[in-house]
Amino acid sequence: MSLDVTAFTGLGEGSHDIVVTGLEKRSAKAGGEYLRWEFSDRDGKTASANSSIEMTPGNKTGKWFASLTGKPTVVGESRQMAEVIGRPGSIMVEINPEGYPKVVALVARKADPRVVVPFAETDAKKAEQQHAIQEGDELPF
Question: What single DSSP character describes residue 84?
Answer without folding.
Answer: G
